[in-house]
């Protein structure tokens, strides 16, 4: 196990611990986030085990994408609970993307191929939600400082991470096709983006005690 | 097998850099915009609360005005007629009956005086102009006359000039604090000190009453909310004054309101 992977797991674990401590006080969106973190944590460990057994962790990611889409849809539909139409659009878009991602896993990018198309769909879905959430934050301001608003941290983490991975994963398969080793910078970018994302989730769960969803 | 082409990496690298820069600018821009929107929202909310408070004061004043007018013009007149009727009746009576009616006339006269006094006091509550020191002195005298507690008032220097609306606002706060002392403190002695040094003014209200736990600052022993204190705090916030309250069980309570007269005169309360 590399040091990077251990740091990555520790950050996720910190987020989970923070979430579990505050779980009863969290609103449904952030309860969903805690569940998402738990799923990601176990999927990462299963991915490592699969590498040992099968030499590939990709099947885990194929399974993870529909789950992530469902959980992000749950989180954002709760955050948009005052906007029924947006909520419906988010749910149907998630269903459509999850179905398409499963179809992609069965046809174009099979389970032993990295699901870059699935991740691109997930990134696209989340970016739509993030930008809409930012718009809602401007439209419906609250008195709490932005640094104490969990939704700001949650969305900032998502925006940075998914924009970055949107790029990296979209070139992941073309890079593999050239039979070249994925360059180190790609892994470094993904690692930094992951740390930033789960760090933001941790802050988001920590600031949720200020009582703003 | 496809050939490795360095240009395949250059494009995502440049695009990635652009995306990261754009994202950073976007987030900074978002934070700035959000901050501005938040400030505007806060300003609107404060304005709304100020207007709400002003409306409450106006409603209270108009109600007091109505009650005072009713007391003076209606009940006072009825009592006066009653006195006249009783006087006429007493002329036709003799002995014990006449004495009884004379007693009733005396009571009615007392009642008319009380009604007039009450009407005058209520009218006095609704003020357009006020002298803060004089009004507090009057209240202190009135409370001391009742004899429920010994209230001492001291003002060691001349207060800086304050706007009429600010003086009324401060007087209402002083009344609220005095009411709290009378109703809840069970104090035998209380002090009001007004200290001013140049533009800095401090109003201190202290009593030797039962006090309360600082944790229960917002709740009465019955579990009800202490609206009085919350109201005082809100009023201080509107004025830009500093509100401080210290209390301990059996150790009395001290409330201080500190403000700068120059700053407070700039606050619009109308």
Task: Walk me through the structure.
The complex is a heterodimer of chains A (213) and B (270). Chain A is mostly helical and 213 residues long. Chain A has helices at residues 3-22, 28-54, 58-79, 84-106, 116-139, 150-170, 172-177, 184-207. In chain A, helix 3 (58-79) packs antiparallel against helix 4, helix 4 packs antiparallel against helix 5 (116-139) and helix 6 packs antiparallel against helix 8 (184-207). The N and C termini of chain A lie far apart (36 Å). The model of chain A has no long low-confidence stretch (mean pLDDT 87). With 270 residues, chain B is of the alpha+beta class. The N and C termini of chain B lie far apart (81 Å). A five-stranded mixed beta sheet of chain B has the order 1-2-3-5-4. Chain B is built from six helices and five strands. The interface between A and B is medium-sized, with 26 and 27 residues.
Break the fold down into its secondary structure elements and pairings.
The complex is a heterodimer of chains A (213) and B (270).
Chain A: H1 3-22, H2 28-54, H3 58-79, H4 84-106, H5 116-139, H6 150-170, H7 172-177, H8 184-207
Chain B: H1 7-91, H2 95-125, H3 132-146, E1 150-155, H4 164-185, E2 189-197, E3 200-207, H5 227-239, E4 242-247, E5 253-260, H6 261-264
Parallel strand pairs in B: 1-2
Antiparallel strand pairs in B: 2-3, 3-5, 4-5
Helix pairs in contact in B: 1-2, 3-4, 4-5
Parts with pLDDT < 50 across at least 5 consecutive residues of chain A: none
Work out the count of structural domains of chain B: 2
Largest interface: chains, residues each: A-B, 26 and 27 residues
Taking the alpha carbons of the first and last residues of chain B, their distance comes to 81 Å
Please work out how many helical segments of chain B DSSP would assign.
Answer: 6
Class by alpha and beta content of chain B: alpha+beta
State the shape of chain A.
Answer: globular
Cross-sheet strand order for the largest sheet of chain B: 1-2-3-5-4
> What is the tally of beta strands of chain A?
0
Mean pLDDT of chain A: 87
CATH superfamily of the largest domain in chain B: Histidine kinase-like ATPase, C-terminal domain
Number of strands of chain B: 5
| SSE order of chain A | HHHHHHHH
If helices are DSSP runs of H or I spanning 4 or more residues, what is the number of helices of chain A? 8
The ordered H/E elements of chain B are: HHHEHEEHEEH
How many domain units of chain A? 1
For this structure, what is the CATH class of the largest domain in chain B?
Answer: Alpha Beta
Query: How does CATH name the architecture of the largest domain in chain B?
Result: 2-Layer Sandwich
Question: What summary fits the major beta sheet of chain B?
Answer: 5 strands, mixed
Proportion in helices of chain A: over 70%
Rg from alpha-carbon coordinates of chain A: 17 Å
């Amino acid at each position: 196990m590399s040091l990077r992977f251990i740091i990555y797991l520790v950050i996720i674990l910190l987020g989970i611990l923070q979430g579990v401590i505050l779980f009863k006080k969290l609103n449904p969106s952030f309860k969903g986030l805690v569940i998402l973190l738990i799923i990601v944590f176990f999927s990462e460990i299963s991915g490592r085990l699969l590498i040992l057994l099968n030499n590939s962790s990709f099947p885990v990611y194929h399974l993870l994408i529909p789950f992530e889409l469902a959980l992000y849809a749950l989180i954002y539909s709760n955050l948009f609970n005052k906007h029924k139409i947006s909520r419906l659009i988010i749910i149907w878009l998630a269903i459509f993307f999850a179905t398409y991602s499963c179809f992609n896993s069965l046809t174009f990018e099979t389970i032993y191929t990295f699901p870059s198309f699935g991740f691109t769909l997930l990134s696209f879905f989340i970016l739509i939600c993030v930008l809409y959430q930012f718009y809602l934050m401007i439209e419906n301001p609250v008195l709490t400082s932005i640094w104490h608003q969990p939704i700001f941290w949650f969305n900032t983490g998502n925006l940075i991470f998914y924009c970055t991975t949107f790029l990296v994963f979209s070139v992941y398969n073309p890079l593999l096709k050239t039979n070249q080793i994925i360059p180190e910078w790609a892994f470094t970018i993904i690692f930094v983006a992951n740390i930033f994302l789960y760090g933001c989730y941790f802050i988001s769960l920590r600031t949720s005690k200020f009582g703003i969803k | 097998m496809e050939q490795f082409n360095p240009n395949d990496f250059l494009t995502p690298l440049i695009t990635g850099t652009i995306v990261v820069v754009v994202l950073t600018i976007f987030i900074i821009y978002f934070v700035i915009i959000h901050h501005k929107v938040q400030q505007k929202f806060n300003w609107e909310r404060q304005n709304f609360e100020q207007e709400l408070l002003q409306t409450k004061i106006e409603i209270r004043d108009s109600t007091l005005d109505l009650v005072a007018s009713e007391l003076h013009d209606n009940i006072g007149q009825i009592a006066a007629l009653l006195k006249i009727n009783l006087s006429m009746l007493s002329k036709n009576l003799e002995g014990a009956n006449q004495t009884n009616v004379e007693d009733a006339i005396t009571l009615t006269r007392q009642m008319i005086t009380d009604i007039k006094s009450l009407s005058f006091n209520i009218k006095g509550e609704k003020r357009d102009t006020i002298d803060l020191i004089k009004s507090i002195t009057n209240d202190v005298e009135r409370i001391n006359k009742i004899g429920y507690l010994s209230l001492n008032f001291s003002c060691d220097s001349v207060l800086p000039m304050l706007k009429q609306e600010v003086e009324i606002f401060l007087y209402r706060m002083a009344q609220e604090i005095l009411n709290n002392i009378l109703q809840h403190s069970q104090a035998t002695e209380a002090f009001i000190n007004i200290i001013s040094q140049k533009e800095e003014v401090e109003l201190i209200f202290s009593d030797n009453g039962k006090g309360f736990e600082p944790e229960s600052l917002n709740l009465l022993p019955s579990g009800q909310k202490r609206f009085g204190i919350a109201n005082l705090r809100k009023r201080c916030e509107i004025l830009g004054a500093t509100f401080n309250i210290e209390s301990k069980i059996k150790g009395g309570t001290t409330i201080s309101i500190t403000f700068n007269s120059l700053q407070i005169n700039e606050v619009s309360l109308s």
